[in-house]
Amino acid sequence: MNPTGHHFTSALLNALAAGLLFLVLRKLGASQWLAAAGSLFWALHPLRVESFAWIAERKDVLCGLFFIAAVLAYLRCAEHPSRRRYAAWNIAAALALMLKPTAVCLAPVLLLLDYWPLGRNSGFVRLLVPVYSEPCRSQRDRSAYEGY
User: Fold this and answer.
1) How many domains does the chain have?
2) H helix or E strand, kind and range, residue 117
3) Pair 77, 124 in one domain
4) pLDDT digits (tens, 9 = 90+) for 39-93
5) N or C end of the chain: smaller count of CB under 10 Å?
């Protein structure tokens, strides 16, 4: 058995994910050189070696690819909303979640992107702030906070 084809496709998928990461970093405001350095570091990091060495670890490469694709599609959907872009990030997120359960951290990542740098935080903050801070406030603070 010759593993060359498996290694080649894993390297190709990782290079595609690094290219998508470059686009995400650029969309988030990084300079061209900083985005290139970040995506190159991610692509060549020693912890990624297992994903190339074992065919059973292909799920890591694919999950990373779909995770980054979901973030990029989400950023594009936030800029110019459409049903097609909404479906694209949902499909990429679903594929990432089907590949590895660790992709569940995509939801908090997207919420953080909504808060910063997108600045779409009005509904998110109004929803979560009272829930998480309720046990910590006195009655005086509650009455002052109700107008928020």
Assistant:
1) 2
2) none
3) no
4) 999 998 887 777 877 888 899 999 999 999 999 999 999 999 999 999 999 999 9
5) N
